[in-house]
Amino acid sequence: MDSRISGAVGGAAQGAAAGSAFGPVGIGIGAVAGGLFGGLFGGGGEKEAKKLARLQQKLIYAQQKEQERRQQRQLAQDIGGMTAQVGASGILMTGSTKRYVNEYELEFRRQMAWDRKKAEYDAQTAKYGGQVAVSQIQSAGMQNMFGALGSAASADAFGTFEDGKYKSPFG
Description:
Helix content: over 70%
Strand order of the largest sheet: 1-2
Number of helices: 4
Shape: rod-shaped
Distance between the termini: 33 Å
Structural class: mainly alpha
Number of domains: 1
Order of helices and strands: HHHHEE
C-alpha cells in the first residue's frame, strides 16, 4: 500500500479519535481534516527512493566505464613502453620477454574484468537498497495507520458494542 494512502487513513482515524469528544459532528470533521492532512503531508518517499537508486546505478556504471577507458589507455601505454625498451636494448621480443609482456597484459585484463563485475554487483546493491528503502517507508506508513485506527477505536469513534449489540457513534 502506498504510504500516502496509509497516511490518509491513519490521519482520518486520528482525526476521528480527536473529534470523538465532540460527538458525531466532531468525529466527521476530525476524520475529514485528519484524512486530508495525513494524505497531503503523511507518507510518501517511495518514488524518491527508487529514483535515487536508479541514479546511483547510473553513476556506478558511468564510473566503471570511465575507469575501464583509463585502464585501456594505461595498458596500451605500458605495453608500448615495454616494447620500446626491449627494442632499444637490442633484444628481440621473443621468449621470456614476450611471455612477460603477455602475462602483464593478461593480468591487467583480468583486473579490468573484475572491476566490471564489481561495478555490476555495486549497481545491483544500489537497486536492492532502493527497494529496501521503499519497503521500509511503506511498512512505517502501515504501522502508523494501524496505530491510528487503534486510537480511534479506543476513543469509540467507530461505535461501541453494548449488551452484544453495535451502537453507532452517530446515535
